[in-house]
Amino acid sequence: MLGWALTFLTLALAAGYLGFFELAGLGASIARILLLVFVILLVVGAFSGSVRSASDLPKRPPRI
């Protein structure tokens, strides 16, 4: 999703440079929305415990 946001940001910058200001505004709006959704999903994923902690890792068997 971050890749899509960067793609639309690049499209907006290129369109603005070429003078297509309406297309640049649309691309920037889409990039902003996708970036916001990406950040929200990142925060929710970090706080929901989907990131594995060190205590969740499998234990190694003892050495003999």
* Overall geometry: elongated
- Quaternary state reads single chain
Give the helix level as a range of percent. Answer: 55-70%
Number of helices: 2
Radius of gyration: 20 Å
In total, the number of strands is 0
- The secondary structure category is mainly alpha
How do the helices and strands follow one another from N- to C-terminus? HH
Work out the strand percent: under 5%
Q: Tally the structural domains.
A: 1
Low-confidence stretches: none
Between the first and last Cα atoms, what is the distance in angstroms? Answer: 48 Å
The overall pLDDT, averaged over residues, is 77
Sheet with the most strands, sense and barrel status: none
